[in-house]
């Protein structure tokens, strides 16, 4: 709850949750509790200086433990992992940004498609410039699907 309440507006307070989640993950020797890994991944991603790689690794572990993406509200793991992967994509940092490698594209697009089956994530991604910009270069059809639904819902483009 502390992480969730503070991730946007009080990153210093949110950052204090990282050692707690690290301890919970370390104590989970049987890898049973996906939420601890997921929360650690979110905190690492959302801190002032994000640790994209560690966040991706923790979210990947949460996904492995959770297994079935149909569990309510846990597709956010894939959504956040997609953002971590986008932010690590060397092609994203080029001027101008270029297309990602085929393996990177496949992994990110797979995460996005899994995530947007959750309606609230679809709504989030419609307005997430990082996701839309990356998709515009790497999967224009999926970008149009997201942007097109934004136009229908809000009347803006």
Features:
72% helix, disordered C terminus
Cα shape = globular
Approximate strand percentage: under 5%
What number is the mean pLDDT? 87
Helix/strand/pairing class, anyone? mainly alpha
Number of helices: 11
User: Strand count, sense and closure of the main sheet?
Assistant: none
Unreliable runs: 151-157
* Secondary structure tally: strands: 0
Give the radius of gyration. Answer: 16 Å
- Listing every helix as H and every strand as E from the N terminus to the C terminus, the arrangement reads HHHHHHHHHHH
Distance between the termini: 35 Å
Helix content: over 70%
Outline the structure in words.
The chain has 157 residues and is an all-alpha fold. It has 11 helices and no strands. It has helices at 2-6, 11-15, 17-27, 34-46, 52-66, 76-88, 90-93, 102-115, 119-126, 129-138, 140-154. Helix 3 packs antiparallel against helix 4, helix 6 runs antiparallel to helix 8 (102-115) and helix 10 (129-138) packs across helix 11. The protein starts with a helix and ends with a helix. Mean pLDDT is 87; it is low at 151-157.
Write the layout of secondary structure elements.
Layout: H1 2-6, H2 11-15, H3 17-27, H4 34-46, H5 52-66, H6 76-88, H7 90-93, H8 102-115, H9 119-126, H10 129-138, H11 140-154
């Amino acid at each position: 709850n502390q992480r969730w309440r503070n991730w946007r507006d009080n990153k210093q307070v949110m950052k204090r949750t990282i050692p707690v989640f690290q301890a919970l993950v370390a104590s989970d020797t049987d890898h049973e509790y996906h939420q601890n890994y997921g929360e650690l991944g979110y905190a690492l991603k959302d801190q002032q200086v994000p640790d994209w790689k560690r966040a991706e690794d923790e979210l990947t572990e949460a996904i492995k433990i959770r297994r079935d993406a149909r569990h309510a509200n846990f597709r956010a793991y894939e959504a956040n992992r997609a953002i971590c992967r986008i932010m690590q994509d060397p092609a994203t940092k080029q001027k101008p940004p270029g297309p990602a490698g085929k393996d990177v594209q496949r992994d990110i697009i797979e995460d996005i498609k899994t995530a947007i089956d959750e309606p609230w994530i679809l709504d989030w991604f419609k307005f997430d410039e990082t996701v839309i910009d990356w998709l515009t270069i790497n999967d224009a059809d999926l970008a149009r699907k997201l942007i097109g639904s934004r136009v229908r819902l809000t009347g803006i483009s």
